[in-house]
Amino acid sequence: MRLPPQRSAATAKPQRRFPKIDHRIAAFVACAVFALGAFGAVQLFGDPAAAGPRRVVSLEPGAASAATDAPRVSFSDAAEEGMDLEHFGLDELPQAGAEIGEIGADGQLRVSVVESPEATAGRPAASPLPRAPFAGMTESGPNGPLPIIAANGRTPGQAYARPFTRQTDRPMVAVVIGGLGFNARATTQAIDELPPEVTLSFVPYAQDLQTWIDRARARGHEVMLELPMEPFDPDADDTGPQTLLATASGQQNVSRLDQLLSRGAGYFGVTNYQGARFATSAQASTPVVQALRRRGLVFISSGIGQRTALSAEAQRAGLPSMAADRIIDVRREADAIDDQLLNLEALALQNQSAIGAGFAYPVTIEQVGRWANDVASRGYQLAPASAVLNARAARR
C-alpha cells in the first residue's frame, strides 16, 4: 500500500501575510474622523447663540470708569479680603496697562463670563442694598457695633429698609420669613430664591450672622433681627441665654438687648422670637421698647397677638410698630400655606395692605416663592415689611 507523498517545506502552501500597519497614521486618521464628526454634529444640532459671552466684567485695578455699566471686580479689594489670587492664575496684582485678556478703550481689563441658563433660571433679579453698617450710625457694643440714630436724624429703620415705590392702585402684601441663620441650606434658599421684596429675619445666635446679613442685603432683602422673649413654657421652647424675661429688671433686659443687637449690623428693625409671656408684662416691655426707640429701630411682632402690653407700650413710647396679620405656616402643608397667602390677599384688598409671617421651612419658602411670582398678575403689589409699616403709620 502506497502512502500519499509528503509535502516538503519547500513545496508547502505559503501562509497569507497582511500588510504591516503604521499605528501612528491610524491614530491620526481616527482623530480626524472623530473631529469631523463632532464638527458636523455642532453644525447640525448646536445653538450658535450659546457660544457667546453672557456678561462682560471689568477687572479693574484702579478707580471705576463711568464709560461702562459692566460689573467690576477690584483686585485690590480682593487682596485686602484675603482672596487667593493664584486661584485666578495670577501671582500678583495686575498693573495698569497690563496686557491680560482684552483691554478696552478705557484701559480696563475685560473678560467674558459665561453663565449657564440653568444656573440663573427662575432666580429673582437682585437689586443689592449697600453693605452695612453705615458711617455715623453705630456705637461700640458688647459684641460689635450697636445701631444709633445719625447726627442728621436718619434712623437705622430708614437707612437699612429696602427702598420702595408704591403703586397706589394696588393693595400691598408683605411677607417676613424668619428663623434664618441656623440651617445653612434653608437660609441660602430663602436668600437666593425668594424675591428681594420678601423681608428676612435672622436668629441672633446664628454663627457668622454678619455674613448672612451681608449676603441677604446683597440680594436686595431688607433684614430684621429676632429678639428671643420669654414664652409661657420655657422648658418646651428654648430661647437661649439672652432671653428677655418678664421677671427681670429693666436694666437686666436692656443689657441683654444690647448683647443681642450688637451681634450684627444692617437690620432696619426687630421682631420677636416666642415671647407670649414677656408680651403680657408692661413693666418688662417698657424699658425694652424705649431702648429700641432711642436706637431708631422698628418693631414688627408675630405670633403673640396684636393687643398685648408689649404692643401698647411700643405705641406709648413712639416706637414704630405693627403686628403680622397672619402666621402663614401654622400647618406645614403646601395647601394650608397657600390658603393663608390667599387670606393675606383678601385682607390687603380690604385694608390696603397685609403682612404675613412664616418660618424658614422648605415648604414655606417654596410656596411663598411660587405665590410671589404670580401675585402681581392678580392686581397686588409685593412689598417689603418696612413699606407696609410706613404706609400704615402715614394713615394714622
Helix segment count? 12
Arithmetic mean of pLDDT: 80
Segments where pLDDT lies below 50 for 5+ residues?
A: 1-16, 48-103, 109-122
Biggest beta sheet summary: 9 strands, parallel
The ordered H/E elements are: HEEHEEHEEHEHEHEHEHEHEEHEHEH
Number of strands: 15
Shape annotation: globular
Ends apart, CA distance between termini: 134 Å
| Helix residue percentage | 25-40%
Percent of residues in beta strands? 15-25%
Q: Specify the structural class.
A: alpha/beta
Description:
The protein has twelve helices and 15 strands. The chain has 396 residues and is an alpha/beta fold. Helix 7 (250-261) packs across helix 8 and helix 8 runs parallel beside helix 9.
Relevant terms:
34% helix; alpha/beta; 396 residues; disordered N terminus; 12 helices
Q: What is the element layout, followed by pairings?
A:
Elements: H1 23-45, E1 55-59, E2 72-73, H2 75-80, E3 102-103, E4 109-113, H3 117-120, E5 138-140, E6 145-147, H4 156-159, E7 172-180, H5 184-193, E8 199-202, H6 209-218, E9 223-229, H7 250-261, E10 269-274, H8 282-294, E11 298-301, H9 309-317, E12 321-323, E13 326-327, H10 334-351, E14 353-359, H11 362-374, E15 381-382, H12 385-395
Parallel strand pairs: 1-2, 7-8, 7-14, 7-15, 8-9, 9-10, 10-11, 11-12, 13-14
Antiparallel strand pairs: 1-4, 3-4, 5-6
Helix pairs in contact: 7-8, 8-9, 10-11
